[in-house]
Design a protein that fits this description.
With 413 residues, the protein is an alpha/beta fold. Helices cover 32% and strands 17% of the residues.
């Protein structure tokens, strides 16, 4: 079992809420009606699905420059014209996307016009002036010595030069996004004139589900996610990427087969589009493990088919809602340990078949439906100890916010 705890943060995004503040004439805590009356005066009413439209079709950048802002004596300023963004001519799609995005950001948000240029060599980066140069350590000799892993980046600023060096192309992208964030906070195209900073990625993967709907991943949404630091998506929970289905009379299997039909071509398109934003794609593998003699071989065939037809998929999440043993609800039965052992055997088969094709494919068993309450920690621990090596367990936990109402106890995950 992989123990690299930097794999990190699996964030399944459901909603983002911004709450404003206001003041009241009375120091006493207002009631809900008073609060609502004040809030309506100050906050615009958002129509249904407006936020969805913003994510799926809205612009990435907006005006952020304060016309009254001026650089201090300790800051450099990018002038309205005369600078350029320089990248290596053989840069991949992620750097191409990020450099174009920076140009758009400067034009729309800062009212600064820069040219975008590419060269076959960036070795003389230290001699360049009036330029933002973005590349990797092999393209920028002398830069990036402190970078340790994927997504790390280094930024150096002088009065007439800005250098962004990324450990890899995603590091370059996040470094350029950091420049955008700094200027947005400053409300002007100003940076400390002697800035030297190295940023290390805290998490190997930050993943989301789509809030927009089944397999809804428009480019605008992907770009928003990249700017917000998400670098992976789970697409999608209730169907195999090949849309293969297994005949079954078990109730949960029948329900799954009625939910959605996957379009393999759509998955291919998503993988291709997500890659230019530096976003990895994870998919489920759905299968009902049984005690029938041919169950194992059918599972092996399904896995081989998926990893062969979709070699670009970064990893597979084995969620107990869809990848399960015998009867989906039986994990809550009397013999949870047997359910755990048989489920783990299925996980081991997936790992074996995936790694025959590509040892770097990540397999992430997620015991989502296994009891997460503190008083049942032993059964959760047992489940995790059954998992095979070379997997990355996803653990659903109770976060301490338990509550009691009218004799019933509830838990938040």
């Amino acid at each position: 079992m992989k123990t690299n705890n930097t794999w990190g943060l699996i964030t399944f995004l459901t909603a983002s809420i911004c709450i404003g503040t206001t003041t009241f004439a009375s120091e006493a805590e207002p009631d809900s009606k008073t609060f609502l009356s004040k809030a309506i005066q100050l906050l615009p009413v958002e129509k249904r699905y407006d936020y969805h439209k913003k994510l799926s079709k809205g612009p990435i950048h907006r005006l952020r420059r304060d016309p009254k802002a001026q650089p201090t004596s300790k800051e450099m300023s990018i002038p309205d014209t005369g600078w350029k963004v320089l990248v290596h001519a053989k840069s991949g799609p992620v750097v191409q996307y990020a450099s174009n995005d920076l140009r758009d950001y400067l034009k729309i948000s800062m009212k600064v016009s820069v040219e975008l240029e590419s060269k076959l060599s960036l070795k003389n980066w230290a001699e360049q002036k009036n330029v933002i140069i973005a590349g990797t350590p092999d393209q920028l000799p002398g830069m990036g010595k402190a970078l340790k892993g994927p997504k790390d980046y280094e930024i150096r600023v002088t009065p007439n030069r800005i250098i962004v060096c990324g450990f890899d192309e995603r590091g370059v992208m996040y470094g350029l996004f950091n420049l955008e964030a700094r200027m947005s906070l400053r409300e002007g195209p100003y940076l400390p004139h002697n800035l030297k900073t190295v940023r290390h990625s805290l998490y190997q993967t930050r993943m989301v589900l789509s809030w927009l709907g089944w397999m809804e991943w428009p480019d605008s949404y992907l770009s928003h996610m990249a700017h917000d630091g998400y670098d992976a998506i789970f697409a999608s929970v209730y169907a195999n990427p090949t849309d293969v289905r297994v005949d079954s009379t078990e109730l949960y299997s029948l329900l799954l087969q009625r939910i959605k039909r996957q379009n393999p071509a759509r998955v291919k398109d998503l993988i291709k589009r997500a890659a230019k934003f530096g976003i990895k794609v994870y998919t489920p593998i759905l299968y009902r493990i049984t005690d029938e003699p041919d169950s194992e071989e059918i599972l092996r065939k399904i896995v081989r088919d998926i990893v062969t037809k979709f070699p670009e998929i970064h990893g597979h999440i084995l969620l107990t809602e869809g990848f399960y043993y015998d009867n989906w609800a039986s994990h809550g039965g009397k013999d949870k340990k047997k359910w755990a052992r048989e489920w783990a055997k299925g996980v081991a088969i997936v790992v074996e078949e995936c790694h025959k094709v590509n040892p770097d494919i990540e397999v992430l068993p997620w015991e989502y439906n296994i009891d997460f309450r503190p008083q049942n920690a032993d059964i959760k621990r047992y489940f995790i100890t059954q998992l095979p090596k070379d997997t990355i367990p996803l653990v659903t936990w109770e976060n301490g916010k338990s509550f009691k109402i009218d004799g019933f106890q509830g838990f938040l995950r």
